[in-house]
Amino acid sequence: MGNDSLIHREESRKLRIININKTFTGGSQNLAALSNVSIKINEGDFVCILGPSGCGKTTLLRCIAGLERADSGEIMLGENPVRGPGPDRIVVFQDFDQLLPWKTVKENVAFPLKVNKKAPEKEIRDTVKQNLALVGLEEFEDYYPHQLSGGMKQRAAIARALTIHPKVLLMDEPFASVDSQTRTSLQNELIKIWEKFHPTIVFITHNIEEAVILGNRIAVMSSRPGTIKKVIPNELPRPRTVGSAGFSERWNELNNLLVSN
Ligand SMILES: Nc1ncnc2c1ncn2[C@@H]1O[C@H](COP(=O)(O)OP(=O)(O)OP(=O)(O)O)[C@@H](O)[C@H]1O
Ligand SMILES: [Mg+2]
Predict the structure, then answer these.
(1) Which atom of ligand 1 has the smallest separation from the CA of 173?
(2) Which end of the chain has a smaller Cβ tally under 10 Å, C or N?
């Protein structure tokens, strides 16, 4: 393959959010949620979107997922405009109730493969096993969601999101409701998964520390109507912890951007 075609292939998998606007109309009021949001995300990038509560982060993610339609602007995945949800973009939400309650952990994780690919049984079994091992849930494969803790449900939701190797993993504050120890271990697992498979990750958070630990780039949003104030490269060496080199400087830089809303 020549250089040109390689460059073309990489270009063609880029996620581009181009000048999108979104206003909700409810009752007598119009509520502007997003204003001229633009950001380019390369294949395999890990971008954190950081913004204050209510600034439009979930709305932006839902637009990328194709669950919400922007009023104007365009979202492109490679050469294709996003017109609705698709198996190339998988969402992991914040709440713990995304699993099918009548299915066991392993059946939940297998579900996208059964629905989307109609894959052979053996392939499904192997993938489920590998993904449960990645998130440390091998011993709980026969449990039902109601028998799991919140953090375990999030692990299962991540394992399920990985089963069809999505190009883009969209995560909306997925670790916001767990204790800080569980959060750290889920963050570490996500980094391991990203280093192994290099999906493009768009990770929403309002937690500065989490953005610095996870992201390769951090996009800071203004308060509503949300717009992208600045995108900061975050190339600190991994693994990152609160005390590691450059961490507090980056934290302060982001905090200053957030408070100057
Ligand atoms: N379906 C909807 N109908 C009307 N208004 C909506 C709808 N969804 C979101 N909004 C409004 O859009 C604004 C942005 O909401 P959004 O959920 O995107 O914010 P957020 O940044 O994710 O907030 P949080 O950090 O609290 O999760 C809010 O003012 C919200 O009330
Ligand atoms: Mg939200």
Answers:
(1) 27
(2) N
Location of each CATH 3.40.50.300 domain in the chain: 3-88+166-259
Q: Is 75 helix (H, G, I), strand (E, B) or coil?
A: strand
The best mutation among 58, 175, 205, 208 to test binding of ligand 1, ranked by most ligand atoms within 8 Å of the C-beta, falls on 58
Whole-angstrom distance, CA of residue 121 vs CA of residue 192: 27
Which CATH number is associated with domain 3-88+166-259?
3.40.50.300
Q: Say what the pTM is.
A: 0.91
Three-state SS at 216: coil
What are 74-119's pLDDT values in tens digits?
999 999 999 999 888 999 988 767 899 999 999 999 998 888 667 7
Q: Whose CA is nearest to atom 16 of ligand 1?
A: 56
Q: How far is 38 from 17, CA to CA, in rounded Å?
A: 5
Measured in residues, the chain has a length of 261
